[in-house]
Amino acid sequence: MYFHQRFIPGLAAYSYLVADEVSGEAAVIDPTRDIGEFVDIARAEGFRIRHVLETHVHADFVSGSRELKALLGDQVTIHSSGMGGDSWTPPYADVVVADGDVVTLGSIRLQAIHTPGHTVEHISWALFDEGRSVDVPWLVFTGDFLFVGSVGRPDLLGEEARKELASQLYSSVFDKLPGLPEFTEVFPGHGAGSLCGKAIGSRSSSTMGFERRFNDSLQQRPQGQWIDELLSGMPLAPPYFARMKKVNASGPVVLGSTLPGQKIFSATEVSEGICEECLVVDARSKEAFAGAHIPGSVNIPLAPTFANWAGWVLPYDTPLLLVVDDASQMEEVTTHLIRVGFDDIQGFLVNGVSDWQNEGYPLSSFETITVEELNRRVSGSVAPFIIDARTEGEWNSGHIDGAHHIHTGLIENRIDEIPRDRPVAVICGSGYRGSIAASLLMRHGFNDVANVLGGMSAWNAASMRVEVPASSS
Questions:
Q1: Are residues 173 and 103 in the same domain?
Q2: Domain total for the chain?
Q3: For 313-340, what is each residue's pLDDT tens digit?
């Protein structure tokens, strides 16, 4: 058996290719929209991708199933769960999967196991290599049901659905998993950093036996207690998750082999409004953006988490125009965006902000300050309004006395809570999220804004005083 695990940092998403090396037949499990890696592997190894298997309707990225089929043609069969009813059965599925259904690749057998809870339609795929054992699954692809060290969250579809999904998840964990042997290898849909679960481990795989012993969510307790403990401290879910659910349930647009947004705009064209409705997204570093940027632009520095933050803060109904340090970065930035459903990318500004600056067009900027400078200003005559833009867990681990906790992704929702008659200083973990938040504040007309470089990491390294909530101390 040939096996390939693909990991996408930022989204912390795993997808897979498995193949029978004798027949040359291959299947891809839970692909993202950028499918080139799987196609390249299949061509290099002489495999024919015959099947695409989905575990569920994803919330955090656009499924690549239709892209694969569009590229490879009718030789590909898409298998999607029908266990959630018509509302959660993608119309593009060639085969609507029921519990126990089987997909065969030569001597490899993949069998669907209905494991609802993260979503109602969720299935896991147990893999049997019949050259080794007909009856015992070698490994299982668990999607967003079972992670290394955790399980999938049941709270992405609203409060009413949460109650039913949490109950289903409990049943899946304690009724379905016992049927898998201790030595069956577990390959999940996500790793550490994903918001599809809580406290997901950093290992890329595990075994059923290890998870039964050391995964706290697999330790049986009364259902109500188990659910309460699972949901306690669950990270905030981005609003784009709801959109991804709808996109994947109805069927995403097929982009084809050409990425959107490859058109080059000059500074003059942008200034004269050739893309008048466009939102300018600046992917340069936080330091470069703070020093000079196009007024009204939003900074998301190019990094593995780019797609996550794009989903958090960018509007889906507005065309995008990109600013990068170098044209060679365009493919990477665009790939991040299409993974989370941003298809209306008009193009990018050639030579970044340099040409804009050289043409004499207006620029905006904001301060970057050290933690020492922030500490000095806090005791000054006009103390800044400090926004701590981190997560709730980070906030509870210790924060600056007098700071106001507003998660980066919620800045625009809570803009009226921020005073406009005093300076604003934004602090996060290192300065990355602070730059996103500061750019959003500037876009909303805040002029006296500073981003604290080094963030709370630098504040703590300097041994400056922090407050810890009583319940967290």
A1: yes
A2: 3
A3: 999 999 999 999 888 899 999 999 999 9
